[in-house]
């Protein structure tokens, strides 16, 4: 492939379409760095990542001052080599969220460029294992919503053909149980109910809560403990029949290795925007496959649909609309399944006029050969 001659980036600050509250925080904005990489043939690849309202300017500064200049003159097709070189270039700030989010924006742009030059969609270029992935919804399960709203949303998702819904937990135990139970009674046994604690519990509380949740037949307990407490997750996993799900707050493939080796999780929720891009995402997915563990990624449905279709062990795509105001068409949904785009590249139809209008003032920059 041709050498990289131009890198430009900007940031959008998206306001969530619905109020989002979990056990530890409220989502007030979504900073979205967007990177475009141009090679000497004039081909362009677009990538992106995100924060949940803090750190976006730091991500942009790292790209502008350190990562983007290091791309100029590199062969755009050597994605693995570039990813590793950028990792070591930022060795003093890895493993960490800011660096991983910055790398993700660049790595996804390089994959988009490679796919476009090959005239292939990402799900085929990266593996082509599945044609569609089941959907579950999170948008109607936030912690501030009352029981009736949870039931109404779950029934609506079931009617739409979705296979499940996720409920946030972290209220007093009896309230969590009543909320989950109301949804279970409404949707019946054939619809998955997932739960998400967003790292809110200590080990003893997580074990106790899992015992109360078990009779409700939930699909998984997500992020029950702080993400760096691998031993705590292992203790919890040994004490409950509920699958333990982790991954959205892990920033290294080696962290996933430790979880899997110690039996500390049984669902991997690797997030392409937080693990550092498509390159490490695929490694984690295949690592999980070797442990016979399913991949059910966190967030970024518009990008994860293609990655899930690329690997054989992906089971669910999480429905949280993110890019509606930045694209000309949304993710394809058919019979409760997410279907990857057949268009070359990531499969995201960017609306550049809308992006221009929503760009944060002062965030745009460019680096040229």
TrEMBL record:
Keyword Metal-binding included in the entry's annotation: yes
Domain of life: Bacteria
Keywords of the record: Magnesium, Metal-binding
SMART domains attached to this UniProt entry: MR_MLE
Domain Mandelate racemase/muconate lactonizing enzyme C-terminal intervals: 147-243
Transmembrane segments: none
Gene Ontology terms: biological process: carbohydrate catabolic process
InterPro entries: Enolase-like_C_sf (IPR036849), Enolase-like_N (IPR029017), Enolase_C-like (IPR029065), Mandelate_racemase_C (IPR013342), Mandelate_racemase_N_dom (IPR013341), RHMD-like (IPR046945)
Cofactor (UniProt): Mg(2+)
One Pfam short name: MR_MLE_N
CDD domains: MR_like
GO molecular function: hydro-lyase activity; magnesium ion binding
Protein name listed in UniProt: Mandelate racemase/muconate lactonizing enzyme family protein
